[in-house]
Amino acid sequence: MTPFELAEPGTLAQALALLDPDDPSVRPIAGGTALMLMMKAGVFRPTKLVSLRRIGELAAIDAAPAGELRIGAMTPLAEIERSAAVRRHAPVITHTLRTLSNIRVRNVATIGGHLAHADPHMDLPPVLIALNARVVVAAPKGGRTLPVEALFSGYFETVLARDELISALIIPAQGRRRSAYLKCTTRAVHDWPALGVAVSLDTNAKTVPDARIVISAASETPTRLSAAEGVLRGGTDHASLRQAGEAAAQEAQLTADGQGSAAYKRELVRVYVARALRAALAQNSGRA
Q1: How far apart, in Å, are the Cα atoms of 205 and each of 38, 113, 121, 281?
Q2: What is the pTM of this model?
């Protein structure tokens, strides 16, 4: 690696002041699990890294009585995995984290860095989009809040400016919604997926008034499938779930990579969307 300056501010305001909106070689670093690999490979050669690890205000999990969760951007994934509040209010996140990479990575990687990295193969973004989660973005001249699904603009790209930082993740109360996440990997269960499917359903006895179906890994960015969501308003019987899978396969814009061809992934979408829907419907109301 080439030499670089390391800054370790103690507050969010200090960190924002150190970022340069006109210099792409100045970069914030959270857990560093992805950024350090890029630096070792020579893909990224920073002149300055602004470490966020000393900013205590960014590392907390708060649960409101009504069920909303607020997770600081510097909270390690392993801490989220072990959180009783997360398991109680959004258990699909807990289940997803158990097969996200390995425990060594989860001990270091943070939720803010995970989202800002924008790798389309990551497991949590489709889950968070299905849960209708939002990110709080801090900036020198005031922040903003945006849905997680609006964060990603392309392959390894986000809408964040160079002097903006994710400061928190907000997951709304899920109420009676049922959620599930399934992924298909070509090797071990914790490997990069060829396809990830996250679903969240608001259901009554026979219909689905509201559904959110999101795929990742097979597409350039995590993507909601509105046509497949619409199919479910007709019912939750076996035929409706199969039709939702067919609609998803037709709707999805898929990309080929080392995990499989676009044609292969289309068949995965057809099968796994229906499976994820069945898995969500099999849960007790409000559980994943």
Answers
A1: 50, 40, 34, 11
A2: 0.95
